[in-house]
Amino acid sequence: MKNYEEWKMYKFEIETQNPFSSKYTTNDGDIFYVEPVFYTMFSSFKEHYPNDVARILKEMERVVKVNHKVIFTGNYEHPLTQTKEDFIILEIFDITDPLNIFVEDKSRGSDYGD
């Protein structure tokens, strides 16, 4: 786990049961986790859309404020973060798609047939 620069204004906590997730608590007592794969994907957005980083962070802040308990994960079906409470689980696209910030998937299958 790492105390990421983008959320240094919040209280950073280390949890032994979540060794890979960075846990933050806002001044209002809201809790959110940032998993490494989420941050890697966020970093890709930072690289490709530097002018939209503030919008992404603002939307993440809004989502945390509304929901109070959020896990930002790389995989919705298999989050790394284990919690005992009711958290909503979101991927990066849950934040960026509503903002109309998209990463084009340039991967494609083979041009060769069988």
Can you tell me the residue ranges where pLDDT is under 50 for at least 5 consecutive residues?
A: none
- Average pLDDT metric: 90
Helicity, as a percent range: 25-40%
Radius of gyration: 15 Å
- Summing up helix and strand content along with how strands pair, one would put the structural category as alpha/beta
Give the helix tally. 3
Note the gap between the termini.
45 Å
Strand content: 15-25%
Set out the fold topology.
Layout: E1 11-13, E2 22-25, E3 31-34, H1 36-48, H2 53-67, E4 69-72, E5 88-90, H3 92-96
Parallel strand pairs: 3-4, 4-5
Antiparallel strand pairs: 1-2, 2-3
Overview of this protein structure:
The protein is an alpha/beta fold and 114 residues long. The chain is 29% helix and 16% strand. The chain has a 5-stranded mixed β-sheet. The protein is globular. It starts with 10 loop residues before the first strand and ends in an 18-residue tail after the last helix. The protein is built from 3 helices and 5 strands, in the order βββααββα. The chain has helices spanning 36-48, 53-67, 92-96, and strands spanning 11-13, 22-25, 31-34, 69-72, 88-90.
